[in-house]
Amino acid sequence: MSQTIWGDAGGGDGAATLINYPVTITVTSQQILGVNAARRLLKIYNLHATEDIYINFGAAATVANGIRIRALNNNPAGLPQEFSPAPSNTVNMIAAGTNASVIVTEGT
Q: Would the pLDDT of 33 be above 50?
């Protein structure tokens, strides 16, 4: 789903386009988003109740090298992990033990 908004979407004033990507993260690192020099905002919503996921930029994600995004049970407010300004290189994710559903929001 794509939505155009006005205001500051992580990189200045003006119009921004937000795209939501529903993704299932597995126990094998996977590239979720490619290189995007126009990326200004990145939000990750981990929808799994108990499974933390890990994100890495520009290389494969592992539990050891990734940024942990907590499961809903450890994130009672359900807040996403936000990266703003967002890195422009690839976005890679892995789940530690079982598949996890996430929503990735990219703003350009």
A: yes
